[in-house]
């Protein structure tokens, strides 16, 4: 039992992959911001779909197709409920957060962007919430303007207010920084943007599955996230949007399943969500994501959040006792998630990661698809440990103990 009263050992037993060794050592998996592992219930849900009802959804006139379609749409209801979406029609299946953002960038730009317009993006954003807007802006003759970042790896809200002028057509930012763990005051940012008539898109990849999310309470316009970062299958994402906005946007991709009438002289489209879901969907993954939502609901998102934050605080306390380590991102006590990025002075993060991997400790090294942020903080790259419900205080201690070998290996003066 953890200090927060969370039965982490029971949780760990439900994740088959964790019961293995890496390099002859017990696996310590701390790369959860990239991909979380899957509980047996999710693996079973995907396998059972293929074992029992595998068929194309929405297309067949036979029993298996009917069963598959029911499971597919029941899953939409489950995921919509997990984020408190007011209507199932607002939830669109994509291949991940990246495609969700690209969908909005492509379709929104075609309808709303004009020369001279501006899109505000977070200076801390993942590349997937920067590059799509750059392409959309280039096509329209608009521009992408970053919201500045403070030295403490937080968005400069004073600068944001100054940027919100009549030229801005949309604000796109992450709910939680994938690189630094910063949790932005998104409700306040959304309210300020709406006060001047500007819609907001949130990249929720590092928030959904790690804390309670209520899209209605946030009053956000678009919310994007991925299944594989919340104990769900790879290759599946979600875009939630206000129905009026979705209905007004043109399709992003086209093909079967999203059309109403096709004639050689022109075609018409079904309403959302079908308008944005052409082709054969990843039905098994969808069913698996619903199982992940049910699993997280059973754990309790507030309890998961408290457990993960406690692990991050434990790591921050340990790193603070090592003056040869520089932590990037907010200090302990700030509103931050279970992501901790750090730099060992004089040692490349790739080398730090190799020392850890030799002991079975899996972390992420590099700029974590947030190169502009690292440059702003004066770092080429960093080592990042990120936590999930199945991680333990002992694993934090193992990371710190192994990290203590780095100065000796690389002959640092400490």
User: Mean pLDDT across all residues, rounded?
Assistant: 95
Rg value: 22 Å
Number of strands: 17
Give the percentage of residues in beta strands: 15-25%
Total helical elements: 15
Structural class: alpha/beta
Shape: globular
Low-confidence stretches: none
Query: How far apart are the first and last residues' alpha carbons, in Å?
Result: 36 Å
Major sheet characteristics: 7 strands, mixed
Strand order of the largest sheet: 4-10-9-8-7-5-6
Percentage of residues in helical conformation: 25-40%
Please describe the structure with a list of short key phrases separated by commas or semicolons:
single chain, 414 residues, alpha/beta, seven-stranded mixed beta sheet, four-stranded antiparallel beta sheet, 17 strands, 39% helix
Short description:
With 414 residues, the chain is an alpha/beta fold. It is built from 15 helices and 17 strands.
Describe the structure in your own words.
The chain has 414 residues and is of the alpha/beta class. Helix content is 39%, strand content 17%. It has helices spanning 8-12, 40-53, 63-82, 97-112, 131-140, 157-163, 186-195, 215-218, 243-248, 283-299, 301-320, 349-358, 371-376, 393-403, 406-409, and strands at residues 21-22, 25-26, 28-29, 91-94, 118-122, 143-147, 168-174, 200-203, 222-226, 237-241, 259-263, 266-269, 325-328, 339-344, 361-362, 364-366, 382-386. The strands form five sheets. The chain has a seven-stranded mixed beta sheet with strand order 4-10-9-8-7-5-6, with helices on both faces. A four-stranded antiparallel beta sheet has the order 13-14-17-16, with helices on one face. α8 links the parallel β8 (200-203) and β9 (222-226). The model has no long low-confidence stretch (mean pLDDT 95).
